[in-house]
Amino acid sequence: MKYWFGPYPFYEDSFKLVEAPYLGMEHQSSVTYGNKYKNGYLGRDLSGTGWGLEFDFIIIHEAGHEWFANNITNKDVADMWIHEGFTAYSENLYLNYHFGEKAASEYVIGTKRSIQNDTPLIGTYNRNNRGSNDMYYKGANILHTLRQLIADDQKWRAILQGLNKDFYHQTVTSHQVETYISEKSGIHLTQFWEQYLRTTMIPNLQYTLQENQLRYRYIDIIKGFDMPVQVKINGVLNWIQPTGAWKTLENNGKIKTLDVQQDFLINSSLIEKQ
User: Fold this and answer.
1) What span, in angstroms and rounded, lies between the C-alpha atoms of 77 and 112?
2) What is the CATH number of domain 204-270?
3) What does DSSP assign to residue 201?
4) What pLDDT digit, counting tens, does each position of 244-268 carry?
5) For residue 93, what are the contacts with CB-CB under 8 A and spacing of at least 6?
6) 3-class secondary-structure state, position 193
7) Architecture label for domain 2-198
8) In the chain, % of residues over pLDDT 70
9) pLDDT band (50, 70, 90) for residue 274
């Protein structure tokens, strides 16, 4: 975790792994463990890809909380996605460090199957009300999507480390984290955060293929949402920036196929010619 998140935040307290009669839990400098010495989550791969069996889930996940939960702590439980989203994402980053970017990508994309989109990630403030349990893997896929948008792993790693440095041993709000990432990335993310943290809607990229022309737009979005996304047109990667209005992309030759990259947390649907 140090590679991605920066120095361990509690050197003065050491780090302990304590066997317990339950599955496990994060505690500052003392992770409790009951995963029966199996890889995965009690021997199961939560992603369905095989990559989840390459590490002991409880050790990696609960240790990740030393950075997000124990070093950086939410002021209100409504913002608990800060704890669980970043820590679920740390599973992906562990795979990235040891097995490469493809493995990490496949794992985090695989965890999308756990997303319910029942309620927003952020709960009700001042009511002891946490948001949806989607805070784990919807949170992780939101961060994975951000990594694609930033498209600079050195900058992305600096942002993750910067969060732990600049908010060292502090309680924070989601708004502080959102603003920090927006400023450090240089990307205007206001609608991005509103869409993914405060609604249950997943942007749906609608598109039509008409000979040498691609038409596309987003539906199921808030006003002003215009996140760019990578697609493969006839096998060649391209960036497009859909909005709520139809746009047109001309191609020199016939457009035979369009594949939306799965590293983005969106849906997609081919519709009939208009």
Assistant:
1) 23
2) 2.60.40
3) P
4) 999 999 877 788 889 999 999 999 9
5) 1, 4, 104
6) helix
7) Orthogonal Bundle (1.10)
8) 99
9) low
